[in-house]
Every structure is written in C-alpha cells, then in structure tokens.
Amino acid sequence: MRLADFGSGIDAEVTRPHVGMYPLPGPSVEEETEGYQPPEAALGGAPYAPLHPSTYDLWSMGITVLELLLATPDVLPLSRRAEAVLRLKYASQPPPVMRRLLIANALAEHCILPAAAAADPAAVARYGRKGTACGKAEFIEKVLQSDPLSRAGGALSLAEAPRLLELVDLAWHLLRWRPQDRLSATQALRHPAFLERPAGTERAEPAGGNRPWWYWKALLEHPRLSAPIAAAAA
C-alpha cells in the first residue's frame, strides 16, 4: 500500500510572496486540518514555524504513522479523568481556550513537552506521571496503552513486533515539541523502520536486542536515532 498527500505543502518555496501556492500573508491556522497541527499551530496560533516550515508536515507524518498502527484517528488521546477535571476546573473558559487546554494536556500525557518541563519531575507530576521525567520510553508505553490488540490481550511487545515498535520510535522523533528537533524528511526515510531487509532475513530476525548488521548500519548512519526502547530489548 502506498499513501500520498501534499499535506499543507509548507516549505520555503511555497511561502514566498507571489510565488508559492498561498496568497499573502500565507496560510492561516483556519486552513489547517485539526488533529494534524503541531503545537506551534494548535497551541501557539502560528500556522507553521517560520524558520522551519517543513516541520509542520513532518509532525503530520508522525500522526499518520500512529493512525496506521492504532487504526484510529485519535492517536494522542487525553485520559477521561484528566478531561473531566479540566472541563470542571475551567468550565467558564470559552471553547477555543478549552480546546487548547485539552490538546496541551493530551500532549503532556504522551510526554510531548518543552524540554525544560519534560525534565522537571514536579512539572511532569501535574500530568499524572507520579513525579518522573518524561521521555521516549514513556511515550511508547503510552502509545501501546492505546493499541487495540494490546487491550484485547494480544500485547504488542518488542520481541513480538520489532518492526512495529520501530515505527513508534519513528513517530516519537517526528512528534517533538520544538520544530527543529523533529527529523527531516531525509532522516525519516533513513530510519530503521523504513530500512529494506535483505531477502530471506525478515523471518530470521532474532527477538530482543540481537539485531542483524543492516539494522545497526542504519543507526550508525544517523547518530541522532537510537534503537526503540533499548532497555526492553536488552
């Protein structure tokens, strides 16, 4: 199966006045699709990051990856308890403010936070993380809690589905809070999740952390990437 979408088509070329596909002063937040907006658009009100315009569509790609894995458009859900508390506590707020509150808290529950907040146990504790810092392992754990197969008793573990966990790892690197921290399109295409296995090796891949040579070759080519949940693979 192949998927193709122009996304928001945001890059340096299309945002040039009188040259690109958007009229002055460029795209607006109202023209964007809710659910695929990165934090700078959904929360900050900016249609895209001016210094890193292509990162908008890279965030959207991360959302799409999770949609394919979880078979739902609601891939970063807010817990029911947290939503109930927010709606009760901020009942007097207008709908746009409430919407931003719900989105911000849903992202925080998935450890998608500014770096300073993610490293602050006190800040993380406000989102039900029991005072522990947030990172990739916690993000993957939260995603797996939304996995329908896991909820049905068919737990999705690294040993059972390493290729799927590589896709969750890819989503983590695309769904970074700061636009400049997200993978570029070139880096994303070279992620191990997209690495083509040599013929005859797919079924022979061992469980756990004993990866074949072509897996580590991809990681060495991209030092920013790391194996998904390395601790679980050990």
In words, what does this structure look like?
This protein is an all-alpha fold and 234 residues long. The chain has a domain at 76-145. The protein has 12 helices and no strands. The chain has helices at 39-42, 55-70, 80-89, 95-109, 115-118, 121-125, 136-145, 148-151, 162-174, 185-189, 213-221, 230-233. Helix 7 crosses helix 9. It is globular, with a radius of gyration of 19 Å. The protein starts with 38 loop residues before the first helix and ends with a helix. 28% of the residues are buried.
Reported for the largest beta sheet, the result is: none
Mean pLDDT across all residues, rounded?
76
Could you name the ranges where pLDDT drops below 50 across 5 or more consecutive residues? Answer: 154-159, 203-210, 212-234
**Class by helix and strand content?**
mainly alpha
Outline: globular
Question: Which percent band covers the strand fraction?
Answer: under 5%
- Report how far apart the termini are: 33 Å
Q: Which value, in Å, is the CA radius of gyration?
A: 19 Å
Helix content: 40-55%
Order of helix and strand elements from N to C terminus? HHHHHHHHHHHH
Please tally the helical runs, counting DSSP H or I stretches of 4 or more residues.
12
Describe the secondary structure blueprint for this structure.
Elements: H1 39-42, H2 55-70, H3 80-89, H4 95-109, H5 115-118, H6 121-125, H7 136-145, H8 148-151, H9 162-174, H10 185-189, H11 213-221, H12 230-233
Helix pairs in contact: 2-9, 3-4, 7-9
